[in-house]
Amino acid sequence: MNRLADATSPYLLQHKDNPVDWWPWCAEAFAEAKRRDVPVFISVGYAACHWCHVMAHESFEDEQVGALMDERFVAVKVDREERPDVDSVYLTATQAMTGQGGWPTTVFATPDGTPFFCGTYFPKPNLVRLLESVSTAWRDQRDAVLRQGAAVVEAIGGAQAVGGPSAPLTAALLDSAAGQLAKEYDEAHGGFGGAPKFPPHMSLLFLLRHHQRTSSERSLEIVRHTCEAMARGGIHDQLAGGFARYCVDEHWTVPHFEKMLYDNALLLRVYTDLWRLTGDPVARRVARDTARFLADELHRPGGGFASALDADTEGVEGLTYVWTRAQLVEVLGEDDGAWAADLFDVTETGSFERGTSVLRLARDVDDADPAIRGRWQTAVSRLLAARDGRPQPARDDKVVAAWNGLAITAIAEFQQVAAGYAQDAPGDDANLMEGVTIVADGAMRDAAEHLAQVHLVDGRLRRTSRDGRAGESAGVLEDYGCVAEAFCAMHQLTGEGRWLTLAGQLVDVALERFTAPDGAFYDTADDAEQLVTRPADPTDNATPSGRSAIVAALVAYAALTGQNRYREAAESALATVAPLVARHARFTGYAAGVGEALLSGPFEVAVATGDPTGDPLVSAAHRHAPPGAVVVAGQPDQPGVPLLADRRMVGGRPTAYACRGFVCERPVTEVDDLVAQLTGRSAG
C-alpha cells in the first residue's frame, strides 16, 4: 500500500498513486526496515522540481520498478521544503560522497538512517541496476556497507559541526567580502559565475548595504547592472512580474521556469532597496510588479503565500510562457505584433525549444516617450490576457513559515518605500502603484495573521500548513528567524505591539532551544527528532541560513526593544560565521548584510506623530534609513511600542528621535535635520 494519500505536502501527494509502497518520513518506516532487515530507499524532492517529475514518470510510475523497490527496500518519500532538516543531512551526505548535490536526492540508508550510498537523478536503467547492486551488497557485503555508512556520517558531522573558529565581523572583513564579490562579478552579464546562473539576491542586499556605509560606487554598480540585466532577461516574467528560479545560460535569457516564493521575496527586497537609494525607474517598476506577482499569483485569500509555481505545464517545461512571432501577431495584429517581437526579442529561430522564444526586454522603454510606454503596457496587458487562457503550471500551495516570513518582510519594506515615493510618481504610474500597494498590503497582513494563528501552536512554530491546517513538522531555525524578523517588520509598519510580543516569543524559543555552546545555533531544536547528525549549516544558499535569519531577527528585536542581551547574542552568533564571510562571500550574503546593520548601529528611529503613514518625517526616515535601521511612528507612549515611550512632540509638532546603538541624537522637527542625522551630512 502507498501511504501518502493523507499527506499535507503537495509533493508527497504527487506520488500517492505510484505503484511504490511509499512511506512518509516517520519512525515506523525505519522500524519496518529493521524488521525486514532491508535498506531504506530515501527520495528527497519538492513539488516544483523538474527532474523530480522526470524521475517519477520514468521510474516511480513503472510497475516493475515499483515491485523491485517494494521487494528489496522500504521506500521513504521526503518533501525537502517540509523537512529541511532531513534534506540538509542527506544533501550534505550526497555532496560528501559525490562532490555535488541537487534534487531529486536519492539515498540508500541503513534501518537506523545512516546513509551509505547517495546520488541525485538516475535514469530508469541506471536506477534498476543500482537497486539490484545495493540489495546484493546489503546481503553479501554488509560489513563494507556499514563501514561506508560510518565514514559518511563522520564526514557530514564534520561538515555541519559547531564549535569552529570565530572572530568579530569587522568593517575590514566586510570590505574584503565586497572586494571578493567584485572580483567574481560577471562584468559582461551581471551576477556571479556561469551557467546555470542563479539570482544572487542576498549578495546584492549586502552590497547595497555596503554601498550605504562606505559610498562604494563599485558595490552599487554591481547591483545596478545585475538588477537591470535580470529585469530585462528571460528570468524575469515580462508580462506578469516575478522571477524564475534560475537561468540555464549565463546571460539571463532562458530560465528554468519554476517560480519560488523565497526568490521573489528576496528579489523584491533588492529592487525595493535599489529604488529607495537611487530612485531608479527600472527598480521601481520591477519592485512593483514583483509585489503584484506575490499578491496575485502566490497569495491564498485569507491565508499565507504558496510555495511555488511549477516549471512544467502538462509535462512540458515553459509551455505557458514561451511565444512565436506568429502568436504575437495573432494576439496583437500585424503591426503591433511585429513591434512586440522586436521589443521582446522574439525571432523566427527562437531562443528556446521548438522555435519558441522566452520574452526578454530588448529595448529601453522605462524612460521612453509616453506614447511608447503606453504601447508597451497595452501589449503587455493583451499578451497576458491571452497567456492566461493557456494551460497553467501547477501551484504548490503549501505554506512554508520561513518563506512567508521573507515575503512579509519584503512587502512591508516595499510599502514603506512606496509611501515615501508616492508624490514623485507620474499620474498613471501612481495609480498603478496605489493599486498594487493595496492588494500587497492585504496579502501581507493575511500571511502574518496566518502564521500567528495557524503556524504558532503552543508557543512553537510548525514548518508548514496547507488549506488552513498546520502540518506535523516542527519549525526549524530559519522558520524562527524569518518569522520573527517578519513580525518585527509588521510591528514597524502597523505600530501594533502584539507583533513585537510575538517576535519576542520566537527569539526566546530560539535562544532556549537552538543555541550551541559556542554562541552558534543548530538548525533543529534540542527536543526535535534526532537524526544521524544534528544539522547546523551556517551558509546562505537559496534562502538565508537559519543562523543568519535568527541573527537578523535578534538585531531587529534588540533595536526595537532596547534590550542589549539580544544584540549580544546576535554578535556572538555572527562571530561564528565571520571566518566563512572572509572566505566565501557569495554564500554568506545575508550574514554579511546583518553585519553591515550592526556596524551602522543599527539606527533606531521613533517619530512621535498623529499621522504615522503620511508624516514627511516618517517618509524621510524610511527613505534615508541606514542599513538595518528600525523605524516606528505613532502617538507618544503608545502601548506595546517601546521606541515611542517618553517620546513627546516638541512644541506640539511631529518629532523624530534618531538613536544609534541606544545612544540618541537631539529630537528634531524638520525633515532636513533628520536626514542630516541619518546620513551624517549637514542640514540645509
Overview of this protein structure:
With 684 residues, the chain is α+β, with helices and mostly antiparallel strands. Helices cover 52% and strands 10% of the residues. It has 24 helices and 21 strands. The chain has a 5-stranded mixed beta sheet, with helices on both faces. A 4-stranded mixed beta sheet has the order 19-18-20-21, with helices on both faces. Strands 8-9-12 form a 3-stranded antiparallel beta sheet. A hairpin with a 5-residue loop joins strand 4 (105-109) and strand 5. Helix 11 packs antiparallel against helix 12 and helix 18 packs parallel to helix 20 (546-561). The radius of gyration is 26 Å and the shape is globular. The termini are far apart. 53% of the residues are buried. The mean pLDDT is 94.
Structural classification: alpha+beta
Q: What is the tally of helical segments?
A: 24
Rg (C-alpha, Å)? 26 Å
Shape: globular
Number of strands: 21
Largest sheet: 5 strands, mixed
- Side by side, the strands of the main sheet go 1-3-2-4-5
Strand content: 5-15%
Distance linking N and C termini? 76 Å
Helix fraction bin: 40-55%
Q: Could you report the average pLDDT, rounded to the nearest whole number?
A: 94
Q: List unreliable stretches of 5+ residues.
A: none
